[in-house]
């Protein structure tokens, strides 16, 4: 579908890509990872055609369409939400406009005129295109995607200009999903999603027909969706045939192997250099010396990226406090006529570790602000416990930093006396490297300011931390540092986040905020999701049971009930399922007649899948070797065509196999 062929790119003296090569095939799910500045955004621009390489080429099949969701910066207004989402089908809407214009013209024409017949023919052809595009289904598709991304039914007629930045990104995401490009390029797509819409989004992407490349710091999201990982490091792109967790394990194995190869190479080089040095002055060895000098010049030296130190950082010990740190009693919160909470009760005790989840707009951040005394309440009580010392972090905390101070001085001034080294360590963990610590706040990006504000808070001793989306601007390593520190922290924690992989090892309770109020679950976010799924399954089962009972009662007539009580001859006595012995034998024979061919079909599909998967794996291995693209053009194309054919047919065979298994299960039950 798309081939990156020996891509080279430099920005000034800095090499961004030093000859990267890879392929993207239909239905690929690729996680794109790398440290900040490794070139992830640049690679996306290359794929989109917004950046030209200095060497090599990005080759796309003619049918390929691309869709890119950036991290932020998209906003629309002037249309109702539903109409804005419908613009994803602009080509279909244009056909509909032509139909409307032609229909209006038709009313003005005399049926006897030749133009009338011509216009009718045009309308017929256009209507045929609309039918092929399933135009009648588009409104329901739009509604399904918008509701899945967290919009309410009442939002569909609201002007897009009324929605905030996070919701604007959801509008952009909805339009992108509805367009269904061949390749989706998603840059931090989970940043603006709550847990419920994130679960829907994951499920949608699993079923998506095109390929997807994802840049994300949400480990659980990557692990759930991706089947391949591209790792950008030192201008190279390394392919891994698995998700992020596989990449982490495999990259360590590869690095160890590379280190052994580098050590072996260094021994060989040292041995050669000793020979040259020893015999350089001997004319009898001149030829051999010259040969070894040339051999040294030709050696492609193995480079190993400096291994990042595992940063160890611990939070200051929580000062002693009473058993109850914070309590809300019968709290009422309103914004004008909009009521957020009515009679909300909540208690936080010493050592509690609570994850707060819920739909966007449910009031999670409002709760955090109320608990931190940053938001007034319209009723009830907020009670602070004995010697409770509470710290609060949210994205706007960065606005309170002194623009003329540098990062290091801010961190050092926040740290306890004599803890300056701890301040520098934490800044390094939060991506302030080298001289970055001397940058003034006024020149920092929004993400850098947020990281600095978070670091400043974490350096001070508190016995309760309230964190609202603390991971939004952190990379994987920074999140791991923060996660380890919070796991070891001995104070109380309240964390508002949708990042499951970050929350799960930390949280011991989960507070769900919804329109119905607040509910506490005695477990982490995974436990909460399992409980919610079980509740929904039970509700569906109860609904199905009631529906089935109602249908059974409606079908049961007095005559049927009376006849069921009457006696019958022995050879026609109904079985418990209502069938006579003769009817049962006939049914069994018919079932056996159908089972044979189905089992044969299933066996053949299993054999085909095994054969094709082996060939597919072998081809994939070859294609990851840079030498693959140095063979002749026709040979490369033939291999890639075969690769695409295998991928498509393996997926189709699996789908057919599942259908066969369902039929077999139905017959055998």
TrEMBL record:
It catalyses: ATP + H2O = ADP + phosphate + H(+). SMART domains: AAA. Residues 2-259, 326-541 form the ABC transporter domain. Residues 543-581 are annotated as: Disordered. One of its GO terms (molecular function) is ATP hydrolysis activity. Keywords: ATP-binding, Nucleotide-binding, Repeat. InterPro entries: AAA+_ATPase (IPR003593), ABC_tran_C (IPR032524), ABC_tran_Xtn (IPR032781), ABC_transporter-like_ATP-bd (IPR003439), ABC_transporter-like_CS (IPR017871), ABCF_ATPase (IPR051309), P-loop_NTPase (IPR027417), Val-tRNA_synth_C_sf (IPR037118). Residues 543-571 have a biased composition (Low complexity). CDD domains: ABCF_EF-3 (cd03221). Belongs to the ABC transporter superfamily. ABCF family. Uup subfamily. This is ABC transporter ATP-binding protein. It comes from Cerasicoccus arenae.
